[in-house]
Amino acid sequence: MNIQLKLSLILCLLLGGASTASAEGDDDMFAEYRAMFGDDNPAELVEMQGEELWNAERGPKKTTLAGCDFGRGAGVLAGAYAQLPRYFADTGQVMDLESRLLHCMESIQGLDVSALRKHPYSEQGQPQTDLESLSAYIAAQSRGMPVAVPQSHELERQAFADGARMFNFRAGPHDFSCATCHSQSGKRIRLQALPQLNTPEGARSSFGSWPAYRISQGAVRTIEWRMADCMRQQRLPGLVLGSKVAIDLITYLGVQAKGAEMSAPGLKR
Q: What distance, in Å, lies between the first and last C-alpha atoms of the chain?
């Protein structure tokens, strides 16, 4: 059965079952649609797009991204995503995958990425952005490897500490924080179970599956997108791609998820 047909069947399952699913049974329903995919994941198509972009000679410098160093050496992708965010001496900053990618696209290929910084995520029904495609491809090269976000540099440790504070920081018109939804076990919003992300167990259950293909949106979404969407739901100002807040929060989750097996790109509701 091809991926398109599986998607159609799963959407029917979601639309037909969402109104009747109980709090106890809906997790089984979502496990069922994951099982229907088997070894297939529509994210594979996006990974292929990302691989083409990675190997394409682009920009004024007409070169590939093979010179990009994600912390394990220029062009080395195996295990690199599992160790991000991390400190990079050439920028003097802690960077995640997307901020590092944009840096390399600018510095190595000479590309103008201003439009991509402004609109890093595809709209529903639109083609994936270059950033999303590249993120899916690079993340897939860490599949099966353990999460090992480093804490050896002072700025990495500071990012974790600041991320922990931001996780618990209440703000906005509803006085929400990340902890409002993600600091207790067994909580849910509508049909969505909410992992307890302030514990290693909860962080491990979530961190390693991003980026992920979201069936309800028909697109691969990155962990930066997840952070931005959480901020939107808290009614906070839009989260800037690659901002310190975003990277600190991702560092906080990644450090707690140490040892989890990378399964990205994942498959989510």
A: 20
- Exposure pattern of 6-16 as b/e (b: 16+ CB <10 Å)? bbeebeebbee
Backbone angles phi, psi at 34, to 5 degrees: -65, -40
> pLDDT of 111-149, one tens digit each?
999 999 999 999 988 999 999 999 999 999 999 999 999
SS3 255: helix
Q: Which tokens hold the place of 158? A: 């500071």
Listed in sequence order, the residues at least 6 apart from 227 whose beta carbon sits closer than 8 Å to its beta carbon are 239, 246, 249, 250
pTM: 0.84
Kind and range of the H or E run holding 267: strand 266-268
**Residue 230 annotated to the active site:** yes
Q: What is the pLDDT of residues 55-66, one digit of tens each?
A: 999 999 999 999
